Request: fold
Amino acid sequence: MKDRIKLIMEKENLTPAKFADRLQINRAVISHILNGRNNPSLDVVTKILDDMHYINPEWLLKGTGSMYKDGFDAGELPVEPDLFRQGAINQSQEAAPVEKSPETALKPSVLMPESAEYKQLEPPKTESKKISQIIIYYSDNTFETFTPPAKYGSDK
Reply:
C-alpha cells in the first residue's frame, strides 16, 4: 500500500509534508509509512479516501482496478505548481504591466520628529568599590588576612 500512497502523492504533486498537512495527520505518520516502518492505519486510509473522493478504494486497499473511480478524468486534478512546473506556468501567463499608484509612495512618519537633538549622555555614577580585606591561602592550609588602612579604601 505504501507504493500506492507514493503514487497518489506523485500524481497530486505533493511532498510527504504537504500530503500529511492536507490529510491533517502528523508528518511522522507519513514518514513511517513511506519508510516501511508502519503500515497505514484505518484512520490514514479513511482520511485519504475522504479528502480524495476520486480515489478508488478497491485500488488503494487491494491494488486492483483503476486508481481513479469510474468516470473520473485525471486531467481534472488541480495541478499545484512545483519547482519545475512554475516556469512553464509563468511563461504561459501574460505579465500585466504594473502601475504604481500614488498611495504606495512612502510618506514621512507622524511619529518621527523632523530634527533630533543629540545630547552627550554620561553613564550613571556608581559607588566606587573599596577593598575591605585580602586573604592569602598557603599550601600548608594556613592563611593570612590583611586589612588595608583607611587611606587605601577601607572604611575601618
Notes: Confidence is low (pLDDT under 50) at residues 87-92.
